[in-house]
Amino acid sequence: MKLPWKLILTITLGQLMFLSGPVSPSTQQTNISISTPEQFKAEFDSVPCKNEERLNATNALFEKLGAAPSDISIEQYKNVKNLVIRKQGTSEENIVLGAHYDKVSEGCGAIDNWTGIVTLAHLYKSLKDVPLKKTIIFVAFGEEEKGLLGSHAMVEAINNWRNTAK
């Protein structure tokens, strides 16, 4: 049985909201913007085919979908640049959602992993105005095709931060 795209996206958003905890019961009545298949397709069709264009294209996509430039940071861990947007919650708990923006040398990398970046940006668009308990950290990882360097570097930085906070 094939589920319609809107139902799948609604289930995904619902699960994410459950995990992140709405601030109040009235939050459930917040109007969540769900992207259409045509909107997703337009972003898939605009895939940059050069690795050196991917970070800027990811930044532009998040801005197009409602992120203020001041909310977007490029965080460098060692030699890796990750694009990070924090959707602040009311508690100290965090959920990290990520995809990688780089690609292998052959092809345009539309499936791996521009689809992940587009989905991540559209999830951000859907949740950006919803008040939540847990902070959601949207991360576009760099250098994943070279051995998961971006995500490993971020985990190391988070662990270092936790150790120094104790």
Write the layout of secondary structure elements.
Blueprint (H helix, E strand, L loop, with lengths): L4 H16 L16 H9 L5 H14 L7 E6 L2 E8 L6 E7 L9 H18 L7 E7 L7 H17 L1
- Rg: 16 Å
CATH topology: Aminopeptidase
Low-confidence stretches: 1-8
**Care to count the β-strands?**
4
How many separate structural domains? 1
Strand order of the main beta sheet, please?
1-2-4-3
The average pLDDT value, as a whole number, equals 79
Q: Please report the distance between the alpha carbons of the first and last residues.
A: 50 Å
> What name goes with the CATH superfamily?
Zn peptidases
Look at the structure and give the CATH class.
Alpha Beta
Overall helicity: 40-55%
What's the overall geometry? globular
Give the class from helix and strand content and strand pairing: alpha+beta
If classified by CATH, what would the architecture be? 3-Layer(aba) Sandwich
Strand content: 15-25%
Give descriptors for this structure.
45% helix, disordered N terminus, single chain, Aminopeptidase, 166 residues, 17% strand, four-stranded mixed beta sheet, alpha+beta
